């Protein structure tokens, strides 16, 4: 999840990725404009254009089937510094940053050492899953005790370090001291990234708490990692730390996630490129850095400048300094941008980067339904302006008794091409299949995967509007993806179907695979909702959004088992409560019916935050939601003066912290009803 990418507002210090797709591939906005101008995507048009793939009269030719119950009273847009829920619901704060994994009290966050942060809940909570404590299946078992596994996307140093007090600091990097970073501050920031695995349980009176458990652990930005799949051992992965290219250290900018059918957790590395620096001329960067936006002046947090020159920090300098790649860290950025598999039930296991799923700014991973003897299918979006949507299809079939992460090491990675007639196709990214040949600069499959974006450029994929989370309808198998915004649309691209240039509001696209086979190479698509204010929005069936459900910048997306579609918003810090985004208030979470298009606002968050990550217990009576970076919109001058615009969750006089909230219905009912 990145901040806004308006041309004038790209903030490299805050982690925004610069526009780095120079290809001439078609834009989704243009394709969608042509599609919508035919008027076939609304008012039942989905069934009409599906007839080319599905037999007339098929029960799956339109969005039908059992409908989810949505019974809560929608909450209004809000701007106050608290969490608001519908009447009849309650929320509890759980595991804010700095909570010790052993359940002990710990020290205040600003007083913690780097080592202590490595034993505590990290920063900026994001994607998350509740694994029932039995460890047998990701969605079956106990609803009162389990392992909560959550991502920590990035950090806000001014809220972490005692030295920050009184300094004029925004949400980005700490200033150098005598030309260097304090190494313990750097360690603390690295250890605040990654993933937390923590056992939680509901007590006698309904409150949830941390339970000490040997499985509680942190997987940080410095943890040892194995590399698996076609890029393992590739020359482009060799470094001073791993001369044979089979290992790396850490996982960074962990955004959304995935849950495998064999009960493991996938964490996704999103905007990782800015953590590194290659101090050379921009045009002299290798393509595997340039296409992803590795900077040439300074890194996002200046970790490479830690005093003392320890190797764990120097690795963030990707400048050529040695005689070959095994003598420096020119290839260190190539160890990032992957999907990482973690076994939460085995604390001794080493996380594995699954390279067959491609290297890009992974937002998350969502699996299609699994069937015995059929391939495993997983979808992922590249969260940056004009980047792509991908699908992986395993070579080996799924067998529940033996399934494991090796299924993700061999298969075909595809990239999506959307057509204006409402159809689409999956283009394979396979070495040797023209144009991905040595003659065109791709020596082998490892090079295709390290340069996934370039491979997708080459085959002609469709440039999307920042693809983020995906979700699969548990009834009809349709795939939904949020497209957060497209602020780069020009006046020349405006038409009757797309009346707004510089689309700041985003949309949700959905598609259905040919023959309802998720491994198919063709699909049919439409738009479920075009987000925006009441006068500039549409939801399937031609209805405009209303005061009860207007939203902008859809990001997090998740179907519960009853088919409710939960939508979370991420209006960037530079746009919150300003200009065209002002009417939407603080970031929020909504609930949608995919059959009727009914949408209701369920939750609003405190000031300056993003609502992200959502999951329920198997009985759907407890929901976990993350509140990320409250107070991030505090101006630097106000921070210097000791003023912050959010004190959530700890209250007056305290600095804000990211945290998880536990939502229950007061009558003990199912969330959303």
Provide a quick synopsis of the model.
With 673 residues, the protein is mainly beta. Helix content is 8%, strand content 25%. It is globular.
Which terms summarize this structure?
single chain, 673 residues, mainly beta, six-stranded mixed beta sheet, 29 strands, 8% helix
Tell me what the structure shows.
It is a single chain. The protein is mainly beta. Strands 13, 14, 15, 16, 17, 18, 19, 20, 21 and 22 form a ten-stranded antiparallel beta sheet that branches. It has a six-stranded mixed beta sheet with strand order 8-7-12-11-10-9, with no helix packed on it. Strands 2, 3, 4, 5 and 6 form a five-stranded antiparallel beta sheet that branches. Strand 9 and strand 10 form a beta hairpin. The longest helix has 10 residues. The protein is globular. The two termini are 29 Å apart. The N terminus is likely disordered.
- What separation lies between the terminal Cα atoms? 29 Å
- The coarse overall form would be globular
- Cα-based radius of gyration, to the nearest Å: 23 Å
Low-pLDDT ranges? 2-9, 39-61, 493-499
Give a count of the beta strands, DSSP E runs of length 2 or more.
29
Count of individual helical segments: 9
Give the mean pLDDT.
92
Q: What fraction, in percent, of the residue positions are helical?
A: under 10%
Strand content: 15-25%
What kind of sheet is the major sheet? Answer: 10 strands, antiparallel
Structural class: mainly beta
């Amino acid at each position: 999840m990145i901040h806004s990418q308006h041309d004038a507002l790209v903030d490299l210090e805050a982690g925004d990725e610069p526009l780095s797709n120079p290809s001439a591939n078609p834009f989704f906005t243009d394709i969608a404009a042509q599609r919508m101008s035919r008027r076939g995507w609304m008012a039942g048009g989905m069934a009409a254009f599906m007839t080319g793939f599905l037999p007339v009269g098929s029960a799956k030719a339109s969005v039908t089937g059992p409908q989810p119950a949505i019974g809560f009273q929608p909450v209004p847009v809000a701007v106050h510094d608290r969490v608001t829920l519908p009447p009849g619901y309650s929320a509890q704060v759980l595991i804010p940053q700095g909570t010790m994994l052993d359940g002990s009290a710990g020290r205040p966050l600003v007083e913690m050492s780097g080592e202590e942060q490595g034993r505590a809940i990290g920063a900026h909570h994001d994607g998350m899953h509740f694994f029932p404590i039995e460890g047998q299946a990701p969605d079956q078992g106990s609803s009162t005790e389990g392992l909560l596994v959550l991502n920590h996307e990035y950090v806000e140093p001014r809220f972490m370090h005692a030295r920050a007090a009184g300094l004029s600091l925004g949400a980005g990097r700490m200033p150098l001291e005598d030309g260097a970073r304090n190494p313990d501050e750097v360690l603390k920031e690295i250890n605040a990234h990654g993933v937390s695995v923590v056992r939680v349980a509901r007590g006698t009176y309904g409150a949830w708490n941390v339970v000490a458990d040997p499985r509680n652990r942190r997987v940080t930005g410095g943890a040892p990692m194995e590399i698996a799949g076609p890029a393992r051992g590739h020359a482009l992965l060799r470094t001073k730390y791993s001369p044979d290219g089979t290992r790396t250290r850490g996982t960074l900018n962990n955004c959304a996630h995935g849950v495998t059918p064999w009960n493991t957790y996938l964490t996704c590395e999103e905007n990782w490129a800015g953590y590194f620096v290659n101090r050379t001329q921009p045009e002299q960067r290798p393509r595997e850095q340039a296409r992803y936006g590795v900077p040439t002046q300074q890194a996002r947090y200046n970790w490479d400048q830690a005093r003392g020159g320890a190797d764990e920090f120097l690795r963030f300098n990707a400048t050529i300094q040695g005689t070959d790649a095994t003598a420096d860290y020119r290839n260190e950025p190539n160890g990032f941008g992957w999907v990482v598999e973690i076994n939460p039930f085995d604390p001794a296991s080493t996380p594995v980067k699954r390279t067959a799923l491609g290297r890009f700014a992974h937002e998350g991973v969502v699996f299609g339904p699994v069937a015995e003897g059929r391939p495993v299918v997983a979808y992922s979006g590249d969260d940056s302006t004009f980047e792509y949507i991908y699908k992986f299809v395993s070579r080996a079939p799924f067998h529940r008794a033996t399934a494991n992460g090796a299924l993700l090491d061999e298969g075909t990675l595809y990239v999506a091409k959307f057509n204006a007639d409402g159809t689409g196709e999956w283009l394979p990214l396979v070495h040797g299949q023209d144009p991905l040949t040595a003659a065109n600069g791709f020596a082998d499959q490892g090079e295709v995967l390290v340069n996934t974006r370039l491979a997708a450029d080459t085959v002609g994929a469709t440039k999307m509007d920042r693809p983020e989370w995906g979700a699969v309808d548990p009834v009809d198998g349709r795939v939904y993806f949020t497209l957060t915004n497209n602020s780069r649309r020009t006046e020349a691209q405006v038409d009757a179907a797309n009346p707004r240039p510089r689309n700041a509001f985003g949309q949700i696209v959905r598609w259905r695979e040919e023959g309802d086979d998720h491994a198919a190479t063709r699909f049919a698509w439409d738009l479920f909702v075009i987000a925006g204010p009441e006068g500039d929005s549409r939801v399937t069936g031609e209805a405009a959004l209303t005061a009860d459900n207007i939203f902008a910048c859809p990001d997090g997306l998740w179907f519960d088992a009853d088919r409710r579609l939960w939508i979370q918003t991420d209006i960037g810090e530079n746009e919150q409560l300003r200009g065209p985004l002002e009417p939407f208030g603080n970031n929020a979470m909504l609930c949608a019916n995919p059959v009727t298009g009914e949408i209701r606002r369920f939750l609003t968050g405190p000031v300056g935050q993003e609502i992200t990550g959502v999951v329920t217990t198997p009985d759907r009576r407890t929901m976990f939601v993350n509140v990320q970076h409250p107070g991030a919109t505090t101006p630097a001058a106000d921070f210097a003066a000791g003023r912050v615009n959010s004190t959530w969750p700890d209250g007056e006089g305290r600095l804000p912290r990211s945290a998880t909230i536990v939502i229950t219905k007061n009558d003990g009912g199912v969330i959303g009803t």
